[in-house]
Design goal:
Strand content: 15-25%
Number of helices: 9
Strand order of the largest sheet: 3-2-4-5-1-6
Structural class: alpha/beta
CATH architecture of the largest domain: 3-Layer(aba) Sandwich
CATH class of the largest domain: Alpha Beta
Number of domains: 2
Length: 285
């Protein structure tokens, strides 16, 4: 197992706003992988695979030879993320483990991949679980495997609020941020050093989809222990707490989820609704 603290940049969001930015990131990433004797994969969504190949070739990367020898593959989201009847985070975790094992068996130093994530805001079966997936894979995949992956987010194709939440789920964020004065109601990110999540902002009705992603990550994580760092959380309503509480009792490990630095509002909710405390352990920082 790799040291999670050493792989904070293994899983990065890359935001771009132009074709030129996309090409610059693509070429740098693929060139570095080929130089390091890694296998490189590109999962296209709105970009035609042949455009990926032409762009690499135009910038001096011998993509054709890399494909011929099996070091580079360009496929689509439909063949990877969306290969089943719906997007399934558990299936993708398994796919990453299999892909890395295959790359290492073939003699490569590891696996390097780019995935276009614009499908996550379309009417795709299971797309609502994309946030859960992004939150889980830091510890379930990147802390364990010789894998580097960039999630490509095209700012031109995604609503700003959805984009802010999804890029916030990565420990490393590259590219144009396009930051605006507004602040999303709730942001969540994996803890860098142990299984768990950090919540920031306010959890209410208007961002219930974010709470659902948190709940999915809590319920799906196989880690024996899981922490939720709430020191930056201003408030959460009873429905959000109920979502997290129900997820906690579904955890395969069966151990309580520790709530660190819970705001006073949460403590009061647990006093009023003690049944929501099952599966949760409120503790200090």
């Amino acid at each position: 197992m790799r040291d999670a603290s050493a792989t904070a940049d293994g899983h990065s969001s890359v935001v771009f706003s132009s074709d030129a930015e996309w090409a610059e990131r693509l070429v740098a990433f693929v060139r570095a992988g080929l130089r390091r004797d890694e296998q490189v994969q590109y999962f296209a969504d709105v970009t035609a695979p042949d455009l990926v190949m032409r762009t690499l070739t135009r910038h001096g990367v011998d993509a054709v030879s890399a494909v011929r020898r099996g070091q580079l593959t360009v496929t689509t989201a439909a063949e990877t993320y969306l290969a089943g009847p719906c997007f399934d985070p558990d299936a993708m975790v398994g796919l990453w483990h299999e892909a890395v094992a295959s790359a290492v068996t073939d003699g490569y130093a590891g696996l390097r991949a780019i995935g276009e994530m614009s499908w996550g805001v379309r009417d795709v079966a299971g797309a609502e679980r994309l946030l859960e997936y992004e939150l889980r894979i830091h510890h379930e995949v990147f802390a364990r495997l010789p894998l580097t992956a960039w999630c490509f987010y095209d700012r031109r194709l995604m609503p700003p609020d959805a984009l802010d939440v999804l890029i916030g789920a990565h420990l490393t964020r590259l590219g144009t941020t396009g930051a605006s004065p507004r602040t999303p109601g709730l942001l969540v990110a994996p803890l860098p050093d142990r299984p768990g999540l950090r919540l920031e902002g306010t959890a209410g009705y208007e961002n219930r989809h974010v709470t659902a992603g948190v709940a999915g990550a809590v319920a799906g994580s196989p880690a024996p222990r899981m922490d939720l760092d709430l020191t930056r959380l201003d408030h959460l309503d009873v429905a959000a707490l109920a979502d997290i509480a129900r997820a906690a009792v579904r955890r395969p490990a069966g151990t309580p989820v520790r709530l660190l630095g819970a705001p006073p509002s949460l403590t009061r909710l647990l006093e009023v609704f003690p049944e929501l405390g099952h599966g949760l352990e409120v503790t200090g920082r």
